[in-house]
Amino acid sequence: MSLTTLSPSTTAPANPERSSPRHGRGFWLIALAFLTAMAFSTVPTPLYPLYMARDGFSTFMVTVVFAAYSVGVVISLVLAGHVSDWVGRKKILIPALALELVAAALFLSDPSLPILLLARLVTGLGIGMITATATAYLHDLHTAHRPGASQQRFEVISTAANIGGLGFGPLIAGFLAQYVDAPLRTPYLLFVVLLLVAIVAIAVTPETVEERLVKPAYRPQRISADHGDRAGYVAAAAAAFASFAVFGLFTSVAPGFVAGALHLPSRALAGVIVFAVFGGAAVAQTLTNRLAAPVKVRFGLLAQALGVPTLLVGMHTANLTAFLVGGVVAGIGAGLLLKAAIGTVAAMAAPAKRGEALAGLFLIGYLGLSLPALGIGIATRAISTIAAMTWFTGLLLVMLSGVAVLFRRSTATRRAPARHAG
After folding, report:
1. What pLDDT sits at residue 415?
2. Which of 124, 150, 171, 380 has its CA 20 to 30 A from that of 370?
3. What pLDDT is stored for residue 310 in this prediction?
4. What residues have CB less than 8 Å from 283, skipping those under 6 apart?
5. How far is residue 19's CA from residue 8's CA, in Å, rounded to a whole number?
6. Tell me, what DSSP letter sits at residue 160?
């Protein structure tokens, strides 16, 4: 089904004037709310060394805390990531942002390790509801505001809000922790205000899903490739897994490595480094907007295949430049792959199942975010972080080869009917 087709029973705006400026304004308000939520989810990244110093827990526990967030995301995606398709986008997004406020309150309570784990779990629960829902909401608003127009604006803004938000969180938190009093409280106080603004932004945005009088029987999210192009969906899911794996490893490992092995304890520097990786991904997504999806996939695979080994060289030689360049190049590759995956799934899914299809994609992606990071943490109990990263680099290169094969098969599957028809 066409990306610009709307089902009148599920995704048509209540206002029959589909090109209403309200949907244009709503598009940017939801993008702002999406970016704010994603930024909040990465606020603790440059602060982990401070928690470690205060409470005396290990690098392994940092990865456990990080994994708690990913577990929350996966649980939420399974239980609620697809529900907005029949209850409406706003009825999912506003409670999800309320969960982020609960998490902020937990962080502000001067948490011990168990409370820190709970705060990250609650953060993940909210983000799991937000990620697929906000992406689908942006698609709905773009289509309602510009019916028949190219989907490039949706693709650029949705991925920039997602990935850019992940970068802004550590940047803001790192500078506040470095230059403002109460480094473990001030960043969260700021985001309490920003999250409240985001809730207001969602409240004034027009709904794009008409709530069904007879709702389908509830069921948890199923991971299904049955969204118009099975081979394409599997390829997109594999790309999302590989992309999030790189983001997860860098986010969980980088601050501790910079503070420890490189003896650079600056929280601002840690925030800048993480921001550079996610910022590189967001910029690359914007600059390559007009490239065809297969070209984005090829560039993404190549950049990841070059970037992660370069990052590893930086770790082996304790060279900040190589570490940063490798991280940025790998981030660019991950961003391109993720954008291609989201665009592919949004295009193939029927409007009534778009939230479900995206929830499944992000579910697989967040498994990629958590499992490798947790694996590295477990491995560091027996071997060094650098040795664990060396093993991960080898596994990632194998994974990227598999993604390339899957996309090649997907392209061949789509071309076969065209040749037959010709």
Report:
1. 59
2. 171
3. 94
4. 332
5. 15
6. I
Q: Which residues contact 176 (CB under 8 A, 6 or more apart)?
A: 183, 186, 187, 190
How far does CA 178 lie from the centroid of its chain? Answer: 26
Q: What does pTM read for this prediction? A: 0.80
Burial class (CB in 10 A: 0-12, 13-18, 19+), 390: middle
Residues 6+ apart with CB under 8 A from 394: none
Expressed in angstroms, the distance from the first to the final Cα of the chain is 21
What's the pLDDT at 104? Answer: 97
| Measured distance CA(341)–CA(334) in Å, rounded | 10
Instruction: Specify the DSSP class assigned to residue 261.
Output: T
Q: Rounded to whole angstroms, how far apart are CA atoms 299 and 332?
A: 9
DSSP 161: I
Rounded to whole angstroms, the Cα distance separating 93 from 95 reads 6
The DSSP H or E segment spanning 305 is helix 293-317
**Six-digit token string for 102:** 């609960």
User: Token pair for residue 17?
Assistant: 């004037």
Q: What is the DSSP letter of 217?
A: P
Q: Show the tokens assigned to 421.
A: 């028809």
Q: Which residues contact 125 (CB under 8 A, 6 or more apart)?
A: 72, 73, 75, 76, 99
Buried b (16+ CB within 10 A) or exposed e, 285-303: bbebeeeebeebbbbbbbb
Structure tokens given for 103: 């998490």
- Predicted confidence at residue 7, as pLDDT, reads 34
206 C-beta neighbours (distance < 10 Å), count = 17
List pLDDT tens digits, range 172-207. Answer: 999 999 999 899 999 999 999 999 999 999 999 999
Angle between helices 21-41 and 165-179 (to 10 degrees): 50
According to DSSP, residue 47 is labeled G
Q: Which two tokens stand for residue 38?
A: 């994603």
Distance CA 75, CA 32 (A): 25
User: Quick one: which of 72, 81, 86 has its CA closest to 117?
Assistant: 72
